[in-house]
Fold this sequence. Notes:
Elements: H1 2-14, H2 20-27, H3 31-60, E1 84-91, H4 97-100, E2 101-107, H5 111-114, E3 119-128, H6 131-139, E4 185-187, E5 191-199, E6 213-217, E7 225-229, E8 233-235, H7 258-278, E9 286-289, H8 297-306, E10 310-315, H9 318-331, E11 340-343, H10 347-351, H11 353-366, E12 394-399, H12 403-410, E13 413-421, H13 432-438, H14 446-458, E14 464-469, E15 479-484, H15 486-491, E16 495-499, E17 503-506, H16 517-532, H17 553-556, H18 569-577, E18 586-588
Parallel strand pairs: 9-10, 9-12, 10-11, 12-13, 13-17
Antiparallel strand pairs: 1-2, 1-4, 3-5, 3-7, 3-18, 5-6, 6-8, 14-15, 16-17
Helix pairs in contact: 1-2, 6-18, 7-8, 7-16, 8-9, 11-12
Amino acid sequence: MLLRRRLEALRCSRSADGASSPSKRCSSLPRKFSARREGAPQLQTRRAEASNTSAAASDSSPPTSTSAVAPPPPPPPPQHLPATYRRLVARVPSPSFRSGARVEELPLLPPDSLLGEGQVLVRVAVAGVNGGCETFRVRAEPGTPFAKEGSSPASPSSSSASPSSSSASLSSSSSSPSSSPDPLVVPLGAEGAGTVVAVGPGVRPSQLAVGDRVTMNGGAAFAEFVVAGARGCFRVPESSASSPPSSSSSSSSPSLSPAAAVALSLSGLTAAVALHATAKVRRGETVLVTAAAGGTGHLAVQLAALAGCRVVAVAGGERKARRLRRELSRLDPANEAGHAVVDYKSEEASRDLSGAISGALASSSGGQGGRSEGGGGGRGGGGKGEGFAVGGGIDVCYEGVGGAVRNAVLHNLNAGARVLCVGYMGSYPHTENYRSRREGGGGGSGEEEGAGAAAAEAAPAPATETVFVSGPFDAEPRGRAALPLEPDLFWNRRVVSSLPGDRTIFGDVWSGAAGDPRVLARLRRDLFAAALRGEIVPWIDGEGEGEGEGGNEDDRRSDAPSFSGLEAASDAVERLLSGSSMGKVVLRVSEGGAW
């Protein structure tokens, strides 16, 4: 039957004269089969058109995932790496930073053999200068965590070890003494910013990639190259999430310079954690900042003002006081909070710093200007913004000087005040206070100073010191309290909450973020975002002193030197310890200190 139908269909297709019988036979074929046969060429045509379209598309676009697996993105262009690199190290213990620090040149191994799991290689652009930390490390200062670095006996031949030996090459332990053949040689530099030039195994592109600009804290930042853990690096953002970048910003020109990023990464983050996580400052509180023009103090001033607090900034010298007033005026043009600045080197404050602070608190709480000349008296009558206590004392103190300055603060605390101890620079090894306390007033320099420090360590020292704590509303004029000595309070991170009037001193200003990395991540993110929006302005020593209105020729002229190259590190440290710097002191490691 099937064969007969096919033959009849063949006759129909060959019939050209329109004969009736074949035509009738053709018309009698089953409709379903006929429709299927008639539609087949149309289907084939559509398939051919689709095939042609697909072929044409394949000529102009890469294959889709259905036809082939997309090739991986091309690797970043190879970074040119030198055969050697230089770093700054010190043989410990040494009497001073300058006497112990030296530059050494070492082989730079290929990244494949250099980097371990989760590590990156960073070309350092700028290193931050932390004078106290670096001095304590070089001296292996007793009573600090660096004392153990000088506890191993020295090897007679270690000082003559070749710096180019393979065991001294840059390795994953470059931030520890074990990276050098001499166990008493330690790398220097606590903070830095630079560019990632190589990544090790296990570093995901979402973490870090070649070309990323990063900051890192830890050791060995006084070096041209540093091996760092990817988790310990922070990728520097190039634009604020809440504010679009300016038209001048681009991936090749980030909004923050390496120097600004360094200032924020440790000094700025310390202030943010201390004020917001540990002290939990509240709008309307009074925050006093000592060393207010220093590397971390100037950022604490800005953070407190942005939090809606009244700020009393204490600094030494009219030049610093003038710039602080200008900074506070930028943040609060009408001075609704009643900010004040105290120059502790003024004649009035030199006689009675506690009284000068009291005068500044009183004038700023009741006057408009809040510009205490010398010790205090305000510049005018006028009101204050709502929410600020009139005639009050200090609610939060960000304190980095110690000694007489700290004691003057303790005489002006409100009940429930929080004192954040971020250092004790007034008693660091370069000061007379240190020598009188640790060396029995002997003084000295060079090797004699180091010997004096060792002798002082052997002698027993009192575990506490007696201080007097009071405030403007206390029933008793002075309350006695026993505090740990400043090095013990700071380095052992003690928290003293037994002071009269429910006052607390925090030797550990990071305690508010302890155990929760999310707090640090949030505060760091907010800090950098505020800097990108222009709300926070990092000061770099010697740069931008004439910015803002009201600056005179002295403001615009800066005599601060610029420190470039590892050989200038000792000068940079001494500049900071001299007390003449303003803002963050940095060392430009690479040429020009650029990304």
